[in-house]
C-alpha cells in the first residue's frame, strides 16, 4: 500500500497537466463538431474505369432478373466493398475521404 | 535545468500526444474504423489495429508518467513513433498506388509532409529522453562546463 502511495506521489505532474490540456482539446473538438451530410457511393469493380459510382437517385434492386433500369445490386460477398458513405463534396477517390463505419460489403453490379 | 525536469517535460509531452491520439480515436470509434479501413491494410488487420493502437497508446501514456516505468516506456514510444513515421514515409512514396488520408484528430488537417516533420520531432524527443536517461549524451559535462566558465579567473 505504501509502495502504491509512493508511486502515486512520484507521478509526472507536468505530464498530467499536458494530458488534461489534451483532454480539453478532444472534448472541444467533439462538442463543437457539426455532423456533415453523407453521400452513398458504390464501388463498381466490374468496370474499373468507373471505380466509385455516386448512388444518389439510384435505387438498390437485389431481386431476381430482370432488374429495373438504373438500379444497382449488392451481391453478398464479404471480401470487397459494395457501398460506402462519404462526406458530401468529397469524392471517394480523394485521399481525405473516409468511408463511414457502416460500409456495406458485397459485389457491386450496376443495372443500366 | 535539472536532468529530472527535462525528462519529465519530454515524457509528459509524449504522454500527452499518445493520450490525445488514443482518445480522439476512441471517442468516435465508428469513424476510426472507417479511417483505418481507408489505409492500405486488409480489413482484418485494419479491424485489429483499430483497437490495438489505442490500447498501446493508453498503456504508454500511463507508463510514461511514472519514473519507474519511464525508461521502458520511452523505448516503446520510440519504437511506435518510428513505426508510424516509417509508414508515413512509405505511403508518401506512392508505392501503394494511392495515398490514404492522414486521419486522426487535428492531424488530419496536416499534409503528409507536415505529419512526417511532426512525427520526426516526437521521435527526436524520445531519442533525447533516452539519451538523457541512459547518460548517452554529455548532459552533465555540458552542465559542468557552463559552471566552470562562470567561475572567476584567478
Q: How would you portray this structure in words?
A:
The complex is a heterodimer of chains A (112) and B (154). Chain A is elongated and about 75 Å long. With 112 residues, chain A is of the alpha+beta class. Chain A has helices at residues 2-9, 13-31; strands spanning 38-44, 51-54, 59-60, 71-75, 81-87, 104-105, 107-111. Chain A has two domains: 1-33; 38-111, no CATH class. The longest helix of chain A is centred in the first third of the chain and has 19 residues, at 13-31. Chain A has a four-stranded antiparallel beta sheet with strand order 2-1-5-6, with no helix packed on it. In chain A, strands 3-4-7 form a three-stranded mixed beta sheet, with no helix packed on it. Chain B has one domain (1-149). In chain B, helix 1 runs antiparallel to helix 5 (112-134), helix 3 (43-65) packs antiparallel against helix 4 and helix 4 (67-92) runs antiparallel to helix 5 (112-134). Chain B is globular, with a radius of gyration of 19 Å. The two termini of chain B are 27 Å apart. Classes of the chains: A alpha+beta (112), B mainly alpha (154). Chain A binds chain B through residues 7, 10-19, 21-23, 25-26, 29-30, 95-103, and chain B through 8-9, 11-13, 15-17, 19-20, 23-24, 27-31, 33-35, 37-38, 61, 64-68, 70, 98-103, 105-106, 108.
Amino acid at each position: 500500500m505504501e509502495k502504491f502511495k509512493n508511486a502515486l506521489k512520484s507521478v509526472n505532474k507536468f505530464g498530467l497537466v499536458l494530458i488534461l490540456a489534451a483532454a480539453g482539446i478532444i472534448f472541444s473538438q467533439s462538442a463543437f463538431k457539426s455532423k456533415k451530410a453523407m453521400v452513398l457511393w458504390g464501388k463498381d469493380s466490374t468496370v474499373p474505369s468507373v471505380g466509385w459510382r455516386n448512388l444518389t437517385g439510384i435505387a438498390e434492386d437485389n431481386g431476381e432478373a430482370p432488374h429495373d433500369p438504373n438500379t444497382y445490386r449488392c451481391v453478398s460477398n464479404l471480401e470487397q466493398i459494395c457501398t460506402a458513405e462519404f462526406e458530401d463534396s468529397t469524392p471517394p477517390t480523394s485521399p481525405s475521404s473516409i468511408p463511414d463505419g457502416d460500409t456495406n460489403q458485397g459485389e457491386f453490379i450496376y443495372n443500366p | 535545468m535539472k536532468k529530472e525536469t527535462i525528462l519529465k517535460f519530454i515524457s509528459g509531452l509524449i504522454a500527452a500526444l499518445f493520450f490525445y491520439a488514443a482518445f480522439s480515436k476512441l471517442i468516435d470509434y465508428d469513424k476510426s474504423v472507417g479511417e483505418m479501413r481507408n489505409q492500405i491494410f486488409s480489413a482484418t488487420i485494419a479491424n485489429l489495429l483499430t483497437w490495438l493502437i489505442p490500447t498501446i497508446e493508453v498503456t504508454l501514456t500511463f507508463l510514461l508518467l511514472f519514473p519507474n516505468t519511464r525508461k521502458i516506456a520511452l523505448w516503446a514510444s520510440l519504437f511506435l513513433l518510428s513505426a508510424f513515421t516509417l509508414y508515413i514515409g512509405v505511403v508518401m512514396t506512392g508505392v501503394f498506388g494511392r495515398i490514404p488520408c492522414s486521419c486522426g484528430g487535428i492531424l488530419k488537417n496536416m499534409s503528409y509532409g507536415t505529419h512526417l516533420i511532426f512525427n520526426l520531432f516526437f521521435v527526436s524527443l524520445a531519442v533525447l529522453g533516452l539519451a538523457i536517461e541512459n547518460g548517452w549524451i554529455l548532459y552533465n559535462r555540458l552542465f559542468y562546463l557552463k559552471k566552470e566558465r562562470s567561475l572567476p579567473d584567478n
